[in-house]
Amino acid sequence: MQPPPPPAMRTDLLVSMLATDVAPADRHAVARRIGVAWLAGAGGALLLVLSLYGPRHDLHAMLSTPLFWFKLAFPALVALGAAVGIARIARPGVRIGHAWIGVALPVAVLWIAGVLVWSLAPPAWRDALLFGQTWRSCPFSIPFLSMPGFIALLHALRALAPTRLRQAGALAGLLAGATATLAYCIHCPEMGVPFWAVWYVLGIAAPTALGALAGPAWLRW
After folding, report:
1. Least confident stretch, 6-15, 81-90, 98-107, 195-204
2. Residue 87 to residues 95, 127, 147: CA-CA distances in angstroms?
3. Rounded to an integer, what distance in angstroms lies between the CA atom of residue 74 and that of residue 106?
4. Closest by alpha carbon to 59, among 51, 48, 71?
5. Nearest CA among 201, 168, 189, 191 for reference residue 75
6. Are 90 and 160 in contact (CB under 8 A)?
7. Are 205 and 177 in contact (CB under 8 A)?
8. Is the Cα dihedral 215, 87, 142, 51 positive or negative?
9. Interatomic CA distance for residues 110 and 113, integer angstroms
10. From residue 76, how far is each of 46, 86, 102, 178, 218 by CA, in Å?
11. How many angstroms separate the first and last alpha carbons of the chain?
């Protein structure tokens, strides 16, 4: 009777059998899954804005106004930074690294611009620049509009392998909130930089905080 092969030979045979006909991993699977979730959230936010709020009446004229594009640039850049961070943290053991700079920098620039505009304005204008007409509704509208993206992104992350669950949830909320703000700009009549610096940032911060709280429970695997 022939003796069984030594353990090392049996291990090599097992590895060889497991590696047979194995397809290479899709390098773009994470980006594709996050991208689909982001598009679903963006579409949901835009649909809610158009159906429940409606576009601002002078939107066509605003498209030729540089200040309006600065208004759009803030949430767009925050969303870009959050997307870079979420694409990294969706992989097990990967740190966010310098992705937070892409989020913090546009916020810092907006705050500096807001303070400068507010401080240089005549005192009689300052309240209008800071509170505008919609300060009571804006920080609630943005979290509401972020819900489609928030749910879609958390669902996408749950199918991946993040290990830093609180940070992953916060980034999902941040990306959803910034995307919702971008859609909300189509409706929002406010053109005061101090208003954006306070109320837009608070609106984005709400789903970010919610994601940080929900991440450990929702994304546990």
Report:
1. 6-15
2. 10, 40, 20
3. 6
4. 71
5. 201
6. yes
7. yes
8. negative
9. 5
10. 14, 15, 11, 7, 26
11. 47
**Exposed/middle/buried for 58, CB within 10 Å: 0-12, 13-18, 19+?**
exposed
Does residue 135 carry a pLDDT above 90?
yes
Domain locations along the chain? 29-55+70-218
Burial of 109 (0-12, 13-18, 19+ CB in 10 A): middle
Q: Is the pLDDT of residue 29 over 90?
A: no
Nearest to 159 by CA among 105, 99, 79, 218: 218
Mean pLDDT of 6-30: 58
Residue located via tokens 């700009």: 185
pLDDT digits (tens, 9 = 90+) for 180-202: 999 999 999 999 999 999 999 99
For residues 188 and 138, give the distance between their C-alpha atoms in angstroms, rounded to a whole number: 8
Which pLDDT score is estimated for 92? Answer: 80
Q: What is the pTM of this model?
A: 0.86
The pLDDT, as a whole number, for residue 44 is 97
CA separation, residue 105 to residues 56, 63, 164, 185 (Å):
28, 25, 23, 20
